[in-house]
Amino acid sequence: MTATHVETSSPAAREKASREKAKNSLLYLDGVSVSFDGFKALRSLSLVIEPGEMRAIIGPNGAGKTTMMDVITGKTKPDEGDVYFAGDTDLTRMDEASIASLGIGRKFQKPTVFESHTVWNNIDLALAGVRGPFATLFHRTSLRETARIEEILDIIRLADKKEWLAANLSHGQKQWLEIGMLLAQEPQLLLVDEPVAGMTDAETRETAALLREIAKTKSVVVVEHDMSFVRELDVKVTVLHQGSVLSEGTLDAVSADPTVIEVYLGR
Amino acid sequence: MITAFIFRALDRNTYIVLGLLLAVGILLPLLSLTDPSFPLHVPTYVIALIGKYLCYALLALSVDLVWGYCGILSLGHAAFFALGGYAMGMYLMRQIGARGVYANPILPDFMVFLNWNELPWFWYGFDHFWFAAIMIIAVPGLLAFVFGWFAFRSRVTGVYLSIITQAMTYALLLAFFRNDMGFGGNNGLTDFKDILGFNIQAPATRGVLFFASALALALGFLICRAVIASKFGKVLIAVRDAESRTRFIGYRVEGYKLVVFVLSAMMAGVAGSLYVPQIGIINPGEFAPANSIEAVIWVAVGGRGTLIGPIVGALLVNFGKTWFTSGVLAEYWLFVLGALFVAVTLFLPKGVVGTLLARAKARPTSTSAPAAVSPIEASIAAEEGA
């Protein structure tokens, strides 16, 4: 399903062709390149995520996984290439806050929660709704919002710890809290960076179940190193290497791909 | 909407602080007006001294609002304080009228001395108190807005932001030193006579100014409390703890920083405006970078990230300063201040109030996890980790 790079000389025609291809996808990256001080983090990366799809992205360190997330969420602007969301929204022209409001949620590699807020307040802050400074100044939490927060706390199994400061949660619980914050944002697309890093086997299994549950209603992109976890997810896999797509398919198919074996094992 | 906003702020501690401030604000001036033979008589110099401390406490509160809650370490808040002070000073200068040394009914003495023939345009309106009152809030607010607009949009944070706030106040210091700026140059503005028609030296006027300072501090506390209790306040703490996370859940962080920075600058301006009539002078020295740093030390000593902390810190450090600098060890004060800052950073990272609050919280619920780490502790840990 890799979108081939559109070869057209005129930029306008190229953009038109891109938009045509992007129309039916939820997330569409085509020919995205990013370099930092001469180092090419992404080389003409192309990737298409369908609505409702869950995708696992694997690749060795430095393959460009995090940079790809940065480009999608607006933290990094690509040097060239197209990034479209929901068919026609050009993400390269927006900042983090407006991309988040569009419905793209991101979970960081290192669990990043608001340590000095309670679990409840962490979810409350992420809850879809008011975002402007003056709106939040006079905002009162509605009953509907309270119910939604309770619901999410149940899903991430932190209902009994809602008054705890996030700083006091275990590593695994922080990961879950962050996933809960993602859910509270009501995104259409979740970008999840190494959700099971540092988790126990039991937690890893539970997290896989949770993500599969979430993927029933939303598109999810999971970046992960842990192969047993990727197997547990049982979804299409994209292998990145040196900033571009090396292979794509089921886990078994990519595992059997000689180029992937070479990258992972080296020769 | 506004009433609900303020109402949310009123918890037990807030009532206690407001009650204490108002009680002190009313009682001390009344006692100072009693006959000196009265056993509880308070000398006027004490009123002047504590009135000054109350203004410092409001400045400390404004620093804490941006530093303790939003992680913006401003080392230039004395600039807003001084600008508020100059706005008040300009009003007081115009009230002197023909009673100056050169008896010019319009021009303040220093302008006559410089052979100026007419009032510069930026002095217009300062003969009205209402105009000066607006400027006291508007000028620091505008400077903070322009400064914050550029700094926060460019995502200048941490030590870089602290350095440019120092540069800002230093630039203003140099500018106000110049005679042709029209603010009295090196000597600043002084020799005030009246405020709102009352003799500025009279004990009753001093008492009212003292009360106004206590009232301003109480209002500032109430506003900060309401801001912190709102969802806006939660976002501020979120920005302090994990700025990029806050962006990725859809908050435009620069907008939040700008609003809180402007609010804080306005509070500092009000503090400066009440300071000047009680001290009787405003000069460019108030812009000195060291003043801003001193305000940060008050907050650190009292406890940043608590609203009572900066008030307690400002009072404690300034009582200490007054006591110390009136003895034989006066010239060592700056060493003491520096040592104090180092000691607090090493041994009381949460400050006096922060440490006491954490202890009070830990005792009754020592078995439950939530109290094990106080918010400020968590934020400090987060900063150290970063």
Automatic annotation (TrEMBL), chain A:
An annotated GO cellular component: plasma membrane
Segments forming domain ABC transporter: 27-267
UniProt-listed InterPro entries: AAA+_ATPase, ABC_AA/LPS_Transport, ABC_transporter-like_ATP-bd, ABC_transptr_urea_ATP-bd_UrtD, BCA_ABC_TP_C, P-loop_NTPase
A Pfam cross-reference name: ABC_tran
Single Gene Ontology MF annotation: ATP binding
Keywords for this protein: ATP-binding, Nucleotide-binding, Transport
Name recorded for this polypeptide: Urea transport system ATP-binding protein
Automatic annotation (TrEMBL), chain B:
Alphabetic keyword roster: Cell membrane, Membrane, Transmembrane, Transmembrane helix
Keyword Signal: no
GO CC field: plasma membrane
InterPro entries per UniProt: ABC_transp_permease, ABC_transptr_urea_perm_UrtC, LivM-like
GO molecular function annotations of the record: branched-chain amino acid transmembrane transporter activity
Residues that span the membrane, as ranges: 15-33, 40-60, 66-88, 129-152, 159-177, 208-228, 255-275, 295-317, 329-348
Compartment annotation: Cell membrane
Topology with respect to the bilayer: Multi-pass membrane protein
Listed Pfam families: BPD_transp_2
Family annotation (PANTHER family): HIGH-AFFINITY BRANCHED-CHAIN AMINO ACID TRANSPORT SYSTEM PERMEASE, SLR1201 PROTEIN
Protein name in the entry: Amino acid/amide ABC transporter membrane protein 2, HAAT family (TC 3.A.1.4.-)
